Every structure is written in structure tokens, then in C-alpha cells.
Amino acid sequence: MADLDVDALQRWLRAFAASIAEQQDDLTALDAAIGDADHGANMHRGMTAVVDALPTTPVGPAALLKQTGMVLIRTVGGTSGPLYGTLFLRMASAAGDETTLAPETFAKAWRAGVEGLVARGKAELGDKTLYDALGPAVDALDASLADGESLAAALRAASAAADRGRDATTPMVARKGRASYLGERSAGHQDPGATSAALLVAAAATAVSEGA
Ligand code: ADP
Ligand code: MG
Known about the structure:
The chain is built from eight helices and no strands. The chain is mostly helical. Helix 3 runs antiparallel to helix 4 (80-95). The protein binds adenosine-5'-diphosphate (ADP) and magnesium ion. Adenosine-5'-diphosphate is lined by residues 31, 35-36, 38-39, 42, 78-80, 83, 121-123, 129-131, 176-178, 191-194.
């Protein structure tokens, strides 16, 4: 089973930046409905900075993930910036000093990242947040790898789970973040953060299948 190298991680970050750029206006429209209409701009600013900062000299996975987290914390702003930043910083710690990440190591790093995000944001499933896409995604990733699937197949399963999780946010009443100020009126709108999070998982699936 192929390991993930720094090139694959860079493809992931570039693919995520590209889909954020493409869907920036849609993300902002979602945030306009239940927030303050900046999620698309926040994420686009952050991921542009991440891609601009991608190292030209070789570094290991942990250094790349750590730099990504720090750039996101510095540039995204809002509630989502520190949460996405924490996700990548925790992934970096879990990656340790490996030069390539075995699928199980990558999955463990993802889980550590999502746990860090939850520890920081205190979201539970059903709160209408990033976690509603990311939680099901890491569960699907682990389950597929445990079934003996390839990393590419497991990431496709994770992406499908993230999409379902994103879609499931529509009827939810927000209990965290700005959208929670709307109470019941937040129901009937897809969560912007869960939408960008599903793009992050989809980008990983794209990056790994392209590299295979
Ligand atoms: P802000 O709300 O500060 O304007 P953004 O618009 O960039 O920040 O991000 C909003 C998204 O942040 C929401 O759609 C939601 O998914 C996510 N979010 C808000 N609070 C939390 C939290 N406590 N845990 C996880 N995600 C959260
Ligand atoms: Mg906002």
C-alpha cells in the first residue's frame, strides 16, 4: 500500500486551495445566510497564503503540516481559522519525524487533528459545524483501511462520508459559532464550515488518486 510523501501532501493542499478558490462565492453565500458572509474570503485568503508558502526546498510531512497550520491561524481569521489551524498542527505532531506517512499513520494524524479541533471548539456532532463533516470522514477512513482498502479508496469513502455529513447540516439548528445566534432560524441552511471541510476531504482523495 503506497505511503504518502510530501509531494502528495502538497498536491492535497494545492487541490484544496483550488476548490476553495472555485467555490469561494458559494461559501460566502452560505455564510451570508447564517453568519457574516466572510467564510469564502477567509478560506481563500488562508489557502492562497498556504500555497504561496509551500516550501521549495525539501521538508518532511510534519514541517509541511505545521507550517500550514501556522499560516492558517495567521491568515484565515474568524472562528474557522484557529480551528483549521489546530487541525493541521495536531496532524503535524502525530506525523512525528516520518519522511513518508503510511496510510494508518495518515489516518491517525487525521484523527488527532480532528480531536484537536473538537477540543478547541467544543463542538459535538449535530451542532452544525466543521465537525459534522470531519467526524464522519475520519470514521469512514479508519473503517475502510481496517477493511483492507487502499488509501485512495479509503479517502474516497471518507469524502463521501464528509459530503453526507455536510448535507446533514442543512436541517440542523446551530449550537456553536455565529450561526447559533440565529437559533431556530439557522435551520434550513447548509453550514459553510462543513462545506469547506468536505472540500478538504475531497481534495485529499483527489491528491492521492492523482499520485497513484
Ligand atoms: P466566523 O463565524 O467567525 O465569521 P467563518 O465564517 O470563517 O468564521 O467560519 C464559520 C464556520 O465555523 C461555521 O460555518 C462552522 O462550521 C464553524 N464553526 C463555528 N464554531 C465552531 C466550533 N465551535 N467548532 C467547530 N466549527 C465551528
Ligand atoms: Mg463568517
